[in-house]
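**User:**
Make up any protein.

**Assistant:**
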Amino acid sequence: MAEPNKNNITDRVIRDMNEGVMVLDNSGKILMTNVRALNILGKAQEDLIDQKFAAVFFGDEQNDDFNQTVLNAIYEPEKVHSVVIAYYNREEKRYLNVITSGLTKDGHITGIIVMLSDITELVEVREHLKMMQQIEELNAELKKRNEFIRQAFGRYLSDEIVDKILDTPDGLSIGGNMSNITVMMSDLRGFTAMCEHMDPSDLIKMLNHYLDYMGKIIKELHGTVIEYVGDGILAIFGEPVKLENHAENAVRCAIMMQSKMSEINKWNEEHGYPRLKMGIGINTGDAVVGNIGSEHAVKYNVIGSCVNLCGRIESYTTEGQLFISPTTHEMIGCDMIIDNSFEVAPKGVKEPITIYSLKGLKEPYNISYEVETGEIIPLEKKEYVSLKVLDGKHISDKRETATVTGRSDTQVLFTTEAKLDVFDNIILSAAHDVYGKITKITDEGYIMTITGNN
């Protein structure tokens, strides 16, 4: 489903508002007005846009109260000003509720917004208390409009990104900034094969339940989901929400996600769905974060080698594994529960790096998770199978012989004359194909963790 054009939505809401809107920069230059503001003030748009407020309004002495109100907002943009004043539109006297507030970007005030409500009828017909009640209702209506925009955008973007769009004048402008962040990628093992054997409606129901569960955990730890790619999740920590230690938040989030997989699989079992297996990779580094695209289609995204390396690290994982990079490892400020460490040479990295298999954090968090892999039971009768190695998405033409000597629900123990390494992706074939990844090399042979069947 295509994203709604957020510029059109915002412009339409402002255009159709009953309140007048006028935006000025810090120097007092008028940048924007809507039609309602022009009607209230009795001005033409060509007389206002790109003109200094003082040059347009200060010659009109009978509207000194209005002029002073806007001038106060320019001098004190950090304050919210709300006043009821008389305003003369030519010879017609009106009463306006004028609310002014500063516009901020990255913590800096870039201008002011002036909201104009014509409350002449309220002043003339109703007592002051009733008038104030109506003003509150107008403010509530404005809040309701913001909530509408938030709900519409929220189906496609995180709350933090929606806040940025609503709270900054150029929230939808193209461009980004270089930030130090932590990137997290998760993926379900064997999901592609699963898709071929499930009813589409059941598949979507199961996947939505899983993604909703994981998304809530990410939000709880102040992460931002950039996108869901099928069964995969790309999330970042440190932007747009600034965090004191985004690496710790990301790692805590990943541990919680892995620990909750048992609850997700319990729900799957109750609904007759298969068991899900998740791997997670985390990396910390500099990346470009911001709105990327064109004026017609904009997406809040993250790009850079930091993101690419995170994807490589995640690809090494199997069920229940959480691998972190050296830079993430260095940023963790507490003792970690490290299950293992490996030296790998991912594509795009000049020198080999050490990645860490993380199982938990000690004080002050005291969180960890366990994955039930089951005990490998020796087979009474050995099984002879063929073996192929996967290189990326390609299956090697070379077929080797392997001897399976033990099994558990999730792992296979076998021997072979072929030279294999930890993280090699392989297929064992007999009556059917079993996909897996070499996760351990022992004196008894290779241990493969199963990632899928065919």
